[in-house]
Task: inverse folding
């Protein structure tokens, strides 16, 4: 979807007319939205212990994407570099990860196994 | 689509089994190949009837399974990949909502679609009902199964807050098996008749049921009466008189190995040919 890119100041606005997906509106300013979401997610991840695998992997993913958001001003090029669908879909993924990171702190999912299965429970047939 | 999986660290406590019921699949495959090469090969000596194994897919699923076990060590008991390259995560019942939320929301998982919730009744097991959640990821074109266990009286957390589709699937599990879901918005019967008593898919529920209905001309309505079979129920023994899978026999050595050689006396060694 090549198109003219309007610029206002330093920021680029996507000239996309539509995402092509029902119910998904074009994001007005994806860089700002992603910046806010990634910052909040990293703050939520700070509450988990440093050695938790979930925190390490998620921080890696978020930091990679955050770096791309900070360095790539053009929206289409950002979509291509992140390589996970359209930027609106990336925003939805970021919102999901934020809510998950907050819930993980409540569940404490990094602790060791809470209950072993009884003998023979998983034997098949 | 992007394979956004990060580099994995070695997982700590959880077991990874390749093909639960085919635990020694790699051993068996070599022996089977050796025997099969003699039995089914074409003129040039190539194997013709061996099902091709997708090792790449299997490795990807194994890697992702280890990743899930590593991120959620509190709930994941085992992870296995079946012989048909299907990933299964076996969890404890306290972890239904956390594991499903993780699989739905996490960047590397994104299993946004709940395809089905099935229940399996195995009365011989300590927790007789096994719940199977089947998830599908559209971004990564991948499926995963999450399995837990419960019994008749232990409630399990409803995943309606994670997947709205779970509404009717859990109603069906309740109606057919009697698995109770806590925090479900509307847990009532969905498939059985309005006054129906019992849970029909349980193994101890008879095939003909307990009641039958007929139209009563005096009362001018349908009445329920205890079922009367015209003929005594016949149970056929459909199992073959010959042993079908000597290599999968529980607990004892097969009488003959895969090469067709019998044993006169019990063998002390050679574990490659004696399978359990």
Result:
């Amino acid at each position: 979807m090549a198109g003219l890119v309007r610029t206002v100041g330093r920021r680029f606005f996507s000239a996309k007319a539509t995402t092509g997906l029902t119910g998904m509106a074009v994001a007005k300013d994806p860089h700002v939205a992603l910046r806010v979401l990634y910052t909040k997610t990293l703050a939520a991840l700070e509450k988990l212990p440093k050695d938790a695998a979930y925190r390490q992997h998620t921080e890696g993913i978020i930091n990679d994407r955050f770096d791309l958001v900070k360095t790539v001003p053009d929206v289409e090029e950002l979509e291509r570099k992140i390589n996970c669908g359209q930027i609106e879909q990336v925003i939805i993924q970021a919102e999901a990860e934020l809510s998950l990171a907050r819930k993980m702190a409540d569940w404490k999912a990094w602790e060791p196994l809470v209950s072993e299965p009884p003998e023979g429970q998983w034997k098949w047939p | 689509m992007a394979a956004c999986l990060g580099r994995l660290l070695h997982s700590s406590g959880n077991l990874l089994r390749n093909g639960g019921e085919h635990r020694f699949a790699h051993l068996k495959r070599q022996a089977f190949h050796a025997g099969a090469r003699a039995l089914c090969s074409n003129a040039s000596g190539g194997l013709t009837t061996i099902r091709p194994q997708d090792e790449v897919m299997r490795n990807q699923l194994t890697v992702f399974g280890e990743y899930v076990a590593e991120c959620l060590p509190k709930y994941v008991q085992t992870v296995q990949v079946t012989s048909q390259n299907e990933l299964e995560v076996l969890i404890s019942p306290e972890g239904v909502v956390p594991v499903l939320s993780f699989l739905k929301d996490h960047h590397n998982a994104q299993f946004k679609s709940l395809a089905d919730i099935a229940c399996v009744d195995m009365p011989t097991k300590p927790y007789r009902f096994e719940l199977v959640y089947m998830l599908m990821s559209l971004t990564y074109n991948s499926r995963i199964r999450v399995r837990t266990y419960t019994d008749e009286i232990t409630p399990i957390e409803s995943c309606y807050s994670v997947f709205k589709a779970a509404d009717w699937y859990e109603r069906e599990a309740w109606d057919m098996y009697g698995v109770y879901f806590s925090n479900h918005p509307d847990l009532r019967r969905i498939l059985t008749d309005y006054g129906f008593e019992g849970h029909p898919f349980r193994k101890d529920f008879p095939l003909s049921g307990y009641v039958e209905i007929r139209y009563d001309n005096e009362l001018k309505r349908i009445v329920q009466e205890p079922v009367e079979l015209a003929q005594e129920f016949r149970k056929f023994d459909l199992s073959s008189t010959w042993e079908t899978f000597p290599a999968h026999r529980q607990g004892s050595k097969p009488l003959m190995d895969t090469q067709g050689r019998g044993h006169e006396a019990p063998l002390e060694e050679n574990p490659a040919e004696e399978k359990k």
